[in-house]
Structure formats: C-alpha cells, structure tokens
Amino acid sequence: MKTNEIINTINATLEVNIRSKSRKREIVYSRFIFYRLMRNKNHSLEKIGSFLDKDHATVIHGLKQFDNLIEYEDFKEQYDKVVNELKEKGGIISGKIMKQHTTNNSFFEMFKELNCTQAEMGHLIDLDKNSVHDWLKNKNEMKFSKLEEAAERLGKKVKITIE
Question: How far is CA 111 from CA 50, 107, 116, 134, 143, in A?
C-alpha cells in the first residue's frame, strides 16, 4: 500500500487532515498513528517526516507519544479503526502492527527489569536482532540471567549465550 493511500485512509477514517499545519489534538494524534504505521514498515525517521513535512525529531517525539497513548482506550480504538480500515482495503498493513507493538512493550518491560536507561531501551528497539545481541553480549552475565528471567515472566522463551 502506498504512503498516500495510508495518509488518505487515516484522513478519511478519523475525519482529519494530517498534512495540515494544525496542532489540534485529534490531528496530532492522527499523525502519531501515521508515524507508528510507517515505522512498522521500516521507513527511516527522516523519510516518515518528509511525507508530512516534519523533521525526524518530531517523528521520534510522535512515536514516544504513541507508545504512551496506546494505553488509553480512546486512542487505541482510533488506532484499531485505522488498522482495520487498511486491512479491508487489502493493504500490506496487517496484524503485524499490533504484534510488533506488543513485542516492543515486552522489550520495554524486560529492559525496565534490567534497569536499562531510557536511551538504551529506545536504541535497542530500533536495532536488528544481531545488533541487539552484540549490545547485550557486552553486558555482564548477571544481566543475561535477569533478562532471561524477565522474559520467562512475560511468557517468552529466550536463551542468551555469550560467544
């Protein structure tokens, strides 16, 4: 599904214009949904921003706000409404979005358990699997066992080995 189709779907579904310069809450929140959808399609922060004439810092802020707002039922309903509409249109956007978000939440829970800084958490979420492994490999053995315990409590099976 093309980016313009995603933008048009968000605009039609939520009855907004996310390309406008407005800072009204409903428009800003709709942009946050767009940022998350596009990030889940592995677009760079700069590329996502360019679609709406925003810079990468605005996109970073929007993604952080999305992660906070998704906990609220009203926002989650809007997000689900957009995702369902995109599914109906046959776009490549699917349940992957919620699964990825859930995975990110699980990572955050594990990293909090390890007392990782917010910067470390954000950095690790954006890395690929091998890079995360390389980063973790530099942590001490105690943190590995804590990560495995935290993953176990979340119902995830994780085994980390040091090479």
Answer: 31, 6, 5, 16, 10
Residue 10 CB partners (closer than 8 Å, separation 6+): 16, 18, 30, 33, 34, 37, 82
Q: Which domains does the chain have, with CATH numbers?
A: 3-88 (1.10.1750.10), 96-153 (no CATH)
Nearest alpha-carbon partner for 156 in 115, 40, 147, 122? 147
To the question of pTM greater than 0.70 for the whole model, the response is no
Give me the amino acid identity at 10: I
Mean pLDDT, 10 residues at a time, the chain of 163 residues = 90 96 95 94 92 95 94 93 86 45 51 53 51 53 59 58 46
User: What is the spatial distance between Cα 163 and Cα 158, in angstroms, rounded to a whole number?
Assistant: 16
